[in-house]
Design goal:
- It is a single chain.
- The protein has 482 residues and is α/β, with parallel strands linked by helices.
- The chain has two domains: 272 residues, Aldehyde Dehydrogenase, Chain A, domain 1, CATH 3.40.605.10; 180 residues, Aldehyde Dehydrogenase, Chain A, domain 2 (3-Layer(aba) Sandwich), CATH 3.40.309.10.
- Helix content is 37%, strand content 22%.
- It is built from 14 helices and 22 strands.
- A seven-stranded mixed sheet has the order 14-15-16-13-12-18-19, with helices on both faces. A six-stranded mixed sheet has the order 9-8-7-10-11-21, sandwiched between helices. A three-stranded antiparallel sheet has the order 5-6-22, with no helix packed on it.
- A hairpin with a 2-residue loop joins strand 1 and strand 2.
- Helix 2 crosses helix 6, helix 3 crosses helix 4 and helix 4 packs parallel to helix 5.
Length: 482
């Protein structure tokens, strides 16, 4: 891993503007999933270090909270500029620890930086209201204030952009922050902390610690932490939410998905195939908003599978640093086993393997881009998130039928459909029980739009003008005698 700026590869944790080892001097090994190579080690911190980081954030809060919004905005813009300046090194770090192809990693860095830029501007747009007073000689005011110390746990699949999507609005609002990135991919977060330090963000405002699950327990149970954010599985999110109940802290959760991808008879088939390939196989299918169930109307079912098979068979699998690679490794053996389990279950229940279906010769954690047809609602893949490079094709006949199938899940994060019928576009968009809907596109995430789901896919929204709301409290003030 060759970096232009070796100072971005940090192997210590960032607390109160300084770099620290774990008190136990224990470490977590970070391996490249494409090669198995040991990249480096990071501290294995625990409850005590989490408490120290929370206290540092709490100490920094009063000054940061009263820092003028324009100054917070300026510092965030400096952070954004440094991220863009060092995007090649940040992408290299991301590719090495997470495995996604280098061009895709570069896109994530730019995408992640966009949240810092966006919320740098939103910092100056946190305003309140003067509302009608209940009596003469009174004035009623509503203001917005930073909620306080925030903490978050972020996942391994987007180790840069999910960090910036949470930290950006918090710092813009005047909150301070403690982050625990995923143990498989902490280096991207530590590099962001280094750049935040260089940007001049004050000590204690942003802290990054790596280590055990005890850190998350400390976050959720601490009375100092007033807002907790988590991106990950529904099972873990539910547990963390329950732990937050004891201190009645504000919670935002972005959890599991089971995205339907619907292709109607009247769709542009070429566009739908292209949209599905982009949606399903980026990051080797390890994306919470990627399609998990592909519903194709009976009139174009066979043709769609043929064209999809042709497109997917062209995808190059390999190390993310190699040229023209589209599909990199999965994160670990557990991920490989889940894809295999879903394929075996589907085949046993009557599905057909159209393409792939086996581990790839590129290495231990690689899996062939795969396609199943004849999938039905009774199969595991219909109810569980696969999180791998497997497209599962269901056949449907009517609009009413596919809406029922699409909504038959506990999840409600993202959904997609392709159609040229304008009336159908409005009907289906309104009928889908999801927080985000992509119409005639396989991608929908950007800093301008609210990201989040409904049902057991989570609570709250990230990004957009709405994304800062979770880091603010409303205060009502009644002035009398005026």
């Amino acid at each position: 891993m060759q970096l232009k700026d070796e100072g971005l590869l940090k192997t210590q944790c960032y607390i109160n503007g300084e770099w620290y080892e774990a008190l136990s001097f224990e470490h977590i090994e970070i391996h490249n999933p494409a090669t198995g190579e040991l990249i480096t080690k990071v501290p294995k911190m625990c409850q005590k270090e989490a408490e120290i980081a929370i206290e540092a954030a709490n100490k920094a809060l009063p000054q940061w909270k009263k820092t003028p919004a324009k100054e917070r905005s300026r510092l965030l813009k400096q952070w954004y500029a440094l991220i863009i300046e060092h995007q090649d090194d940040l992408a290299t770090i991301l590719c090495a620890e997470q495995g996604k192809p280098l061009p895709e990693a570069k896109r994530e860095i730019v995408y992640g930086a966009s949240y810092i830029e966006w919320f740098a501007e939103e910092a100056k747009r946190i305003d309140g209201d003067i509302i009608p007073a209940p009596a003469v000689h009174q004035k009623a005011l509503v203001s917005k204030e930073a909620i306080g110390v925030c903490a978050a746990i972020t996942p391994w699949n987007f180790p840069n952009s999910i960090v910036t999507r949470k930290v950006g609005p918090a710092l813009a609002a005047g909150c301070t922050f403690v982050l625990r990135p995923a143990s498989q991919t902490p280096l991207s977060a530590l590099a962001l902390a280094e750049l935040a330090d260089r940007a001049g963000i004050p000590a204690g405002v942003f802290n990054v610690i790596t280590g055990t699950h005890a850190i998350g327990d400390t976050f959720t149970r601490s009375p100092i932490v007033r807002k907790f954010s988590f991106t990950g599985s529904t099972a873990v999110g539910s547990q963390l939410m329950a732990q937050c109940a004891g201190t009645v802290k504000k919670v935002s959760l972005e959890l599991g998905g089971n995205a339907p991808f619907i292709v109607f008879d009247d769709a542009d088939i070429e566009a739908a195939v292209k949209g599905l390939v982009t949606n399903k196989y980026r990051n080797a299918g390890q994306t919470c908003v990627c399609s998990n169930r592909v519903y194709v109307q009976s009139g174009i079912y066979s043709l769609f599978i043929q064209k999809l098979r042709e497109a997917v068979s062209q995808l190059k699998v390999g190390n993310g640093f190699d040229p023209d690679v589209i599909v990199g490794p999965l994160i670990d053996q557990t991920a490989i086993h889940k894809v295999q389990e879903h394929i075996q279950d589907a085949l046993a229940k009557g599905a057909l393997l159209e393409l792939g279906g086996h581990p790839h010769v590129a290495g231990e954690l690689f899996f062939e881009p795969s396609i199943l047809s004849g999938v039905t609602q009774e199969m595991k893949i219909a109810q569980e998130e696969t999180f791998g490079p497997l497209a599962s094709i269901f056949k449907f006949d009517t609009e009413e039928e596919v809406i029922r199938y699409a909504n038959d899940t506990i999840y409600g994060l993202a959904a997609y459909f392709f159609s040229k019928d304008l009336a159908r576009i409005f009907r289906v968009s309104e009928s889908l029980e999801y927080g985000m809907v992509g119409v005639n596109t396989g991608t929908l995430s950007n800093e301008l739009a609210p990201f989040g789901g409904i049902k057991q896919s989570g609570i709250g929204r990230e990004g957009s003008k709405y994304g800062i709301d979770d880091y603010l409290e409303l205060k009502y003030t009644l002035l009398s005698g005026v």
